[in-house]
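Reviewer comment 2.1 asked that we show a complete input and output for one of the modelled complexes. We chose the TLP case, as it is the one discussed in the main text.
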Amino acid sequence: MKVIDLRSDTVTRPTPAMRQAMAEAEVGDDVFGEDPTVNALQARSAALLGKEAALFVPSGTMANQLAIRTHTEPGDEVIIEGSSHPFNYEGGATAALSGVQFFTLPGRRGILEASQIEAAIRPPDHHYPRTRLVCLENTHNRGGGSIFPLEKILEIAGVARDRGLALHLDGARLFNACVATGIKPAEYARHFDSVSFCLSKGLGAPVGSLLAGSAAFIDRAHRFRKMFGGGMRQAGILAAAGLYALDHHIERLEEDHRHARLLAQGLAGFPGVEVKPEEVETNMVFVRVTDRPAAELARALREQGVLLLATARDTIRCVTHLDVSEADIHDALARITEWLHHAG
Ligand code: TLP
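Response of the prediction step:
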């Protein structure tokens, strides 16, 4: 029985063609700035986002943490949505590595309004932390793979600019938003001082993320990358996978989105679960489990060879990706129906 792994788009394995590109990569010592493949990936990523420079880093977490460290000084405050990745899933790194605190705001499916941000900015008084940075997430993971509407980004960027705040985009899945909306990466990116994106999610590379911004910003981030232990040597082997992914795996994200819709539509009628297919915007389906703990359902389905992620007591997340075909979606739905039918 083939295991259908819908826990995350991080589980993809490099394709034979990607492995070939990795094997053939020209490499050098990137800590000396001498890896031609890393340099090519950085230049390509900066151009794609319309930024002056970009830095290759091991993970999306490091990209976000570097951005936060680079934009702030200890004691500063960062405005962020309450279900965002840096606040919830980065091991408390922001407190530990940057010595800054978060001011969290409740979003609607992860989406914030400019008025909420405006109201959260601290007055200039020595009692308060200094508000320095706003972080947004597009697509928003816990928001359900939701797309941050460009007009709302524009309004928020206006507030940030007027109030002298930096603006960072956690674009771990930015290309999913781009493919779903037809908006170019640079069109999103130009409203932000820094943007990160991941190669190791929907794009299917085994490792790596990019952080992009002005040349001065990336120069400062480079120093913190070293400090955080993220300087890699012959990293061109990994960067080659990234270049391959940018060439071959962006347009196909549309397939993942179609599969997510199929999955949501298929699950919508099942007893014991609640799904809103109309809320599926990209490659994620969040399922509310109504008649048992979500972890119990995930455990039971694992035995049927369908891996899902319980993200809360009553919530399961399913993510479609490169290693899941349309036939796999039908197969997963059949196995889930069968199990629910037997479980009564
Ligand atoms: N997200 C992972 C888990 O950590 C939850 C996943 O399976 O979705 N930003 C966003 C929006 C993310 O979803 C993630 C990873 C990251 C940053 C961090 O990327 P990595 O895992 O490369 O550090």
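The longest strand covers residues 130-137. We note this here for comparison with the apo prediction described in Section 3.2.
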